[in-house]
């Protein structure tokens, strides 16, 4: 959080790259309040089985819900923030 605040005070555009597994609604709101410009999710698979095999101790549905709820947050819309999803495919 301190680095985001520091960057914004310096006039920088600040992004966060995350796998999303530890984001909570409260933490997300704080990130947006600090002026975070972009959230980029690294999502490791397109199906539950592969995702949970690659991202051990993480839940596919839970992470998807977090990404979806962030994209719907009114604060994201009003502040014209951006949400990106990077998909990685494992065969």
Give a brief outline of the structure:
The chain is 46% helix and 18% strand. The chain is of the alpha/beta class.
Q: Which key phrases capture this entry?
A:
91 residues; 3 strands; three-stranded parallel β-sheet; alpha/beta
Written overview of the protein:
- There is one protein chain.
- The chain has a 3-stranded parallel sheet, covered by helices on one side.
- The chain has one domain.
- The termini are far apart.
- The model has no long low-confidence stretch (mean pLDDT 81).
- It has 5 helices and 3 strands, in the order αβαβαααβ.
- The protein is elongated and about 40 Å long.
- α2 links the parallel β1 and β2 (38-43).
- It is of the alpha/beta class and 91 residues long.
- It has helices spanning 2-9, 25-33, 48-54, 60-72, 74-78; strands at residues 15-18, 38-43, 82-87.
